[in-house]
Amino acid sequence: MKTKLFFLAAFLIFSSAAMAQFNIGVKGGVNISKVDDKAFRDEFTYGYHLGGFAEVGLGKRLKIQPEVLWNQLNTRADTAFRNIYSNALDFSNYKDVKLNYLSIPVLLSYKLGNVLYLQAGPQFGILLNQDKTLLENGKEAFSKGDFSMLGGVQLNVSKLRLSGRYFVGLNNISEIDDNSKWKNQGFQISAGFAL
């Protein structure tokens, strides 16, 4: 009987400590991004992200922060796109491209001060739309997935979360050929609230 009470008490203490280090919340913000390749304009454009996050404490200084985000990344095809890809549509103006991803970043957060955290980790993205107006016959130009690395800082002020991150794509997101390597890159500025 005493051992059962001991394990029950240990379980309750451990559960309450684990729950004290667990938060969920919502966040949103702006993406400043581009697709890195000579077929696209070498300029950053604006998009947005919305979603939720969880914070799981791993002690006094470390946290794991998984997120689920709707990420819109925008870019513009350059006039060179038609010259590089013979099956591209003929367009006289620059073609705006919107890429909507369901992104799942998993970040390791390290506490530096009272409110400042350094963050880094991978981000997995699933492309939810395919831009079929860049190429003739409706061929898909972009691959269905993206893998990126993120790094940045986050300020935790009470329940408010303010963050700035840089992300860089590690895989080729082009479905056209293997000659060019299209990669997403950019910045995210976010505001969130822990519930």
Number of strands: 8
Low-confidence blocks of residues? none
**Oligomer classification:** single chain
CA-based shape: elongated
How far the N terminus sits from the C terminus, by CA atoms, comes to 39 Å
**From the alpha-carbon coordinates, what is the Rg to the nearest angstrom?**
21 Å
Continuous helix count = 2
Helicity level, as a percent range?
A: 10-25%
Q: Identify the strand order in the major beta sheet.
A: 1-2-3-4-5-6-7-8
What is the residue-averaged pLDDT? 82
The helix/strand class is mainly beta
| % residues in beta strands | over 45%
The topology string of helices and strands comes to HEEEHEEEEE
Major sheet size, sense and barrel closure: 8 strands, antiparallel, barrel
Architecture overview:
By secondary structure, this protein is mostly beta strands. Helices cover 12% and strands 55% of the residues. It has two helices and eight strands. Strands 1-2-3-4-5-6-7-8 form an eight-stranded antiparallel barrel. A hairpin with a 4-residue loop joins strand 2 (45-57) and strand 3. The longest helix has 19 residues, at 2-20. The radius of gyration is 21 Å and the shape is elongated. The mean pLDDT is 82.
